[in-house]
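Forwarding these from the shared drive since the link keeps breaking.
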Amino acid sequence: MNAPFKPAGQAPSKPDVDVAILGSGFSGLGMAIALLKDGRDDFVILEKAQGVGGTWRDNTYPGCACDIPSHLYSFSFEPNPEWSRVYPTQPEIRAYLDRVADKYDLRPYLRFGRTVTDISFDEAGGFWRVTSDDGQVLTARVVVSGMGGLSRPILPNIKGMDRFKGKTFHSAWWDHDYDLTGKAVAVIGTGASAIQFVPQIAPKVKSLTVFQRTPSWVMPKKDRERHGWERALFRAAPVFQKLLRGLTYTRLELLATALVWRTDSMAKFEKLGRQFIEATIPDPVLRQKVTPTYRMGCKRILISNDYYPALARPNVDLVTEGIAEITAKGVRTTDGVEHAVDVIVYGTGFAATDALSPTQVHGRGGRHLNAEWEAGAQAYLGVTVSGYPNFFMLMGPNTGLGHNSIVYMIESQIRHVMDGLRRMDAAGAAWMDPKRDAQNAFNAFVQDRVGKTVWNAGGCKSWYLTEDGRNTTIWPGFTFDYRRRVKAVDPAAYDMERVKAEA
């Protein structure tokens, strides 16, 4: 595990491991299990933290939960009949991933406390050098990145943030030791995290000032506890759980039609959204503040039963004026009002469009992936990048979703990786590298289609888009179509190097 760098030009040598997996969330654990099922045990999982779970380990804010139903937000090969609710909570998801790691005996392959800072391809040796922040270097023939888009919290760039004398933290770094009871609290941001934790903290704080830049479309969350008889049925007859999973998948998948091809049909969902606002918020001024003016789906559609009632509480104030600066005492808005608070919670999301940063990735001929992606990330099938042999990404560019379970996409990508490994073995190849023409053709197709979808043409600015408006995040279509495209490696789309490194 502590192999040193090999000097340039040194004779090729066998790498430390065949496969290095980065991250231990759904992607990393799923990849490791696929390798074991295929009889491959020469791999390690490098994890920056001290436990498995990825974003579901890191995000522990009050009310943290998933907006995809439980029986779909899990591995298809590892159903869980014990989900306690229709929608899973963060503690249950993390416990599920811990159980998966234990069941498939993945602990011996995990290397905790390894923050990967650099990945460099050695053309002479035909392997990757994976460097951690502690200076340790691991060599691997194949690197699979499971670093998702929700792994790097971001703070806003607001003047004076360092001047505030009170308590501050990002929702992804929630300070559970700090008691918010009786405090004057400011929340900056009204996205997916904020609509979950705002209702949880509103009853206990003295006052809560929520700063909203753009309202989100919020729909009712059809959540409830699972009955004991339901869990017993799923245990006794797993076919019923499989049927529920299939029905849930199909229902969510139908939404892609409106998001991608028939964006005008989202108007009927907007009508339901406005009815929900009218039913839960009595104040007409507050209603106007929370009602979006863009097409539903342009930004992430949120689901919550208690967010709107929380905003209507007498101790909660929704501020829509822009933020001018952070002062020593609180937040000053563009109308000149200073909102004095004891605590500022940043619910400002994640760096979803540059998930690999700050990890530096260097490919063949001095290529630098971070530099190539300055204008926007792109990859072949969202999994591989030309010039970076044997480097695979799970949840790569344009494979995110706005309507269904990302676990389905992850499993699809894992199938592609496994087919690639088998094809390299059959050909006696050291590496496979997607052709630039194949990558360009795929991304031309993606950008042409996504440009007509609600995500690009819905009249809003969202985290799906880069600063210049390029959508590098979303898959513009049905998930089953994506699975069909990535199911098997197209030999014509890849170059294969058939000279293996010496043992």
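-- next protein --
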Amino acid sequence: MSKYFLLLMFAFAAMSCSKKVEVKGNFAGGSPLERIEFVEASGVATLPLVNMGVDAKGSFSGSFEAPKNGMYIMSYAGKTAMIYLKRGQELNISGQAANFPNQFTITGDAKNNNDFLLEVQKFIQNYASKINVGELVTKNEDAFLKDIERIKKDIEGNIDSSAKKTSADSEVVQFKKDELAASVLGLMNQYEVNHPQATQNPNYKVSKNFKDAEAKLDANSERMLKSQPIYRNYLLGKLSQEFQTFATANRKTGNEISSEVFSQFLDTKKDMSQITKDYLLAFVLSSGDIAPGMTKENSDKISKIIKEKIKDSEIKKDLERIQFVIAGPKVGDAISSAKLIKADGSDFKFGTGKPTLVMFYASWNPYIAEGTVPVLREVVNFYKSKMDFTFVNFDDTKDQFVKTSNAMLKGIPGNNVYGEGGMNSQIAKDLGIYGFKLPSFVVLDKDGKIASRFFYNLGDPEIVTVLDKLSGLKAPTVQPEAHLQNDLLAPQPAPQPQAAPTK
């Protein structure tokens, strides 16, 4: 009996220490062309932890290693919902695909905590709709501080009552209270910045009472720093005007990237903790400078900043990973030798003696058949005398790969191969392939070494330059068509961190 008891205890210990979250669910009316991903919400430069397919009946399942207990962003069909998860939990989720994320049901281990979040969110949405921020910033300081204290007390009361009603865990309750504190601090910063102009009193400065109230809300700064992106935004907002002045005075060549100037600015903040500097610099790096198409010069600058300025090992690791994912392997590196198979089950290896254009794709890529394949056909037909072509599929199963390649790429010369396991395959991990990088392209030289950065558009002039150089051919140039654009519908440029490190 004691032997079986010990085995049972070992099994229980293994389960309780598991970092995996098991996910099962169904979205009625869901499409097999849509995917479900989970991203850890409080980290910096975070990447999807899992990419799950949806079958014809709207069902999905999968698992992922959860880095911590906390908030996760679940995305489906381009829409997102916030879900609180603990490592080792089972998450069951259901609803109508058309109603996500406004309506869905969570059962399983994660039910109580997410019922709590839903209760609190409903209250906050109704409560916040009655707060006039414009009116708040015009009030005298004493009246403002009383209003802020009342708002905090009202919402905290709802948090406590909702926690009792839903039997929520203490850590998710603490998370929500920290989020509230960070939000109130944000309101206080708005008051401090906008009150002088709103009241035509440019000489206004906050009092000791105001600073004491801020300090009280900021008592758990390191905890909020690690779990609350909204708190990091508050800190960046506090630094905004000071950074603007510094950036204006310290841009010497005009070629400095935002994180380069911001890291210099942080060097002057002798009273700021290193972990705070790490999180804020990571925000500026990941929200602007680490981006597709970054030049080698800027990529080298970013690598140096991460290596020299970021001290926290986890933040450094996350930034290095996302830089690799965005930039891809370095030119000159050998391409991954991870296993690829053909439709007949035989192995495939890169390195044919010819330069090769490689495409990475899956059947669920939006509009790939209409938008990418016609251009691919033209590219292959032009360069096929001097180059080879390999099309790497990342569908969930080999059967789906065979169907997809036969239908989508029929008649296009090239090697059709499959990364076993799809998005979980070793080659996807080695090359930093995620759903947002599909379809994508890279060029290999005749020895199977990387000869270009990753591209997401076959019409990119740079990829044409690389193909021409390796093939010895010269692609015809086409004059770009003129486009008339409705400025009201045109995408607006994101705020640049060099102007103010806020988002």
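Residues 170-198 form the longest helix (29 residues). Residues 1-16, 480-503 have pLDDT under 50 and may be disordered.

- D.
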